[in-house]
């Protein structure tokens, strides 16, 4: 039972991957265009057990593309996980080396992305249709670095090819340290409900830790997911947008430590910090474009009951002026603060 049973001997639900100890059971999922370093840093500070960078195209990253560098940024994130994607073992190996040299503690390989742009180049989830190529990519990545390499995939390409357990076992033999399974097939894209029970076939096929992913929105979901899948941890994606503290809340809940949700002022400060990080990363004009979806999501979760809330939200996501964004965030979260004070 390898590392997972060893980790259990630590007495907490820790997962140990090489030198990296993951102290909880709720991870933030990699989301392109969403889990920028600002969001990952905040999620980690609020107790997420692990956070994963946006997918980085291995060839672009090695060629030094600025966008890839920004995606792989990990300042203030510890442990730092860089997710790489691609279909050429040489690029994958080079990208893994570069990420390791740049401070990554873990490399994650993406074999789950369903986007045509990615699967068309035979990367992401398309690799699940070509296990031999998938394994060559895994082997090249694992042998390129000293740090642990993890793998994220789906249940299979479609309902007739649920090969995650087979691929998972082969990947384990090739040196993969942890597997994340999104409980959908590629052909499902994001439709239907994730099948947590189907992840159990993978948990039972391998002795490395398995992380269950797909449609986890709260502590009850997380508990049900762990029970159905036999996984060691859960990974939370969409439900954490606008709520980067959610994985930390769920992690604490799974450890039996109920913690209070962040106060209005903590949420406002997190949203502001995230906004400022994006302006710093991308510059004011592009940063603002990246920040809009986050600001909208923070505002949606603020649920300020005041009459002006809807127009404040609209003003927030269309605002071009950093000072005004700061003021509007203050207004949006003010009601929460007042309710808490009452
Ligand atoms: C906007 C968006 C971007 C995503 N980008 C990535 C990515 O870069 N790498 C990856 O492995 N998965 C990516 N995913 C998939 C998520 O990591 C996760 O597997 C999926 O959203 C299911 O989890 P959820 O139901 O908790 O959101 C993305 C998902 C979304 C919604």
List keywords for this structure.
TIM Barrel, 15 helices, 2 domains, two-stranded antiparallel ribbon, 342 residues, 11 strands, alpha/beta, disordered N terminus
Structure characterization notes:
A 9-stranded parallel β-sheet has the order 4-3-11-10-9-8-7-6-5. The protein folds into 2 domains: 2-254, TIM Barrel, CATH 3.20.20; 264-341. The model is unreliable at 1-11 (pLDDT under 50). Strand 10, helix 10 (219-229) and strand 11 form a beta-alpha-beta unit. It has helices at 2-9, 37-45, 58-63, 66-71, 89-101, 116-120, 131-144, 164-173, 200-205, 219-229, 246-254, 264-282, 284-302, 309-318, 322-341; strands spanning 15-17, 20-22, 26-28, 50-51, 55-57, 81-85, 106-111, 149-156, 178-185, 210-213, 233-236. It contains 15 helices and 11 strands. The radius of gyration is 20 Å and the shape is globular. It is α/β, with parallel strands linked by helices. It starts with a helix and ends with a helix. The chain binds flavin mononucleotide. Flavin mononucleotide binds next to loops.
Biggest sheet: strands side by side, in what order? 4-3-11-10-9-8-7-6-5
Looking at CATH, the homologous superfamily of the largest domain is Aldolase class I
> Would you tell me the overall average pLDDT?
91
**Strand share of the residues?**
5-15%
Q: Treating each run of at least 4 consecutive H or I residues as one helix, how many helices? A: 15
Number of strands: 11
Sheet with the most strands, sense and barrel status = 9 strands, parallel
Number of domains: 2
| CATH-level-2 architecture of the largest domain | Alpha-Beta Barrel
What structural category characterises the helix and strand content?
A: alpha/beta
Bound molecules: flavin mononucleotide
Regions with little confidence, pLDDT below 50 for 5+ residues: 1-11
Mind telling me the CATH class of the largest domain? Alpha Beta
Q: Any idea what the radius of gyration is?
A: 20 Å
The shape, in one word, is: globular
**Helicity, as a percent range:** 40-55%
Question: What separation lies between the terminal Cα atoms?
Answer: 52 Å
| CATH fold annotation of the largest domain | TIM Barrel
> What is the H/E string?
HEEEHEEHHEHEHHEHEHEHEHHHHH
């Amino acid at each position: 039972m390898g590392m997972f049973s060893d980790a259990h001997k630590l007495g907490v639900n820790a997962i140990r991957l090489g030198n990296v100890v993951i102290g909880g059971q709720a991870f933030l999922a990699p989301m392109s265009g969403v889990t920028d370093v600002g969001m990952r840093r905040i999620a980690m500070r609020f107790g997420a057990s692990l956070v994963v960078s946006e997918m980085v195209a291995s060839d672009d990253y090695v060629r030094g593309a600025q966008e890839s560098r920004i995606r792989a940024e990990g300042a203030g994130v510890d442990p730092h996980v860089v997710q790489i994607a691609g279909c050429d073992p040489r690029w994958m190996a080079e990208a893994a080396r570069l990420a390791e040299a740049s401070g990554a503690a873990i490399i994650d390989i993406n074999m789950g992305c369903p986007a045509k742009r990615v699967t068309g180049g035979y990367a992401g989830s398309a690799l699940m249709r070509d296990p031999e190529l998938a394994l060559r990519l895994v082997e090249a990545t694992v042998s390129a670095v000293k740090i642990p390499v993890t793998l994220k995939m789906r249940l299979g390409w479609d309902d007739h090819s649920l090969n995650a357990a087979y691929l998972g076992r082969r990947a384990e033999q090739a040196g993969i340290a942890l597997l994340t399974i999104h409980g959908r097939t590629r052909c499902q894209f994001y439709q239907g409900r994730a099948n947590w029970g189907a992840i159990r076939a993978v948990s039972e096929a391998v002795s490395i830790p398995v992380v269950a992913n797909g449609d986890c929105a709260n502590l009850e979901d997380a508990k049900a997911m762990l029970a159905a899948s036999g996984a060691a941890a859960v990974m939370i994606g969409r439900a954490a947008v606008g709520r980067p503290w959610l994985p930390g809340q769920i992690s604490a809940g799974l450890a039996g430590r109920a913690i209070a949700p962040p106060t209005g002022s903590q949420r406002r400060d997190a949203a502001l910090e995230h906004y400022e990080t994006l302006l710093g990363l991308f510059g004011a004009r592009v940063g603002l474009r990246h920040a809009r979806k986050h600001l909208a999501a923070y505002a949606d979760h603020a649920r300020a009951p005041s009459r002006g809330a809807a127009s404040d939200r609209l003003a927030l996501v269309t605002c071009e002026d950093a000072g005004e964004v700061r003021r509007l965030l203050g207004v949006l979260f003010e009601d929460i603060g007042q309710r808490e004070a009452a």
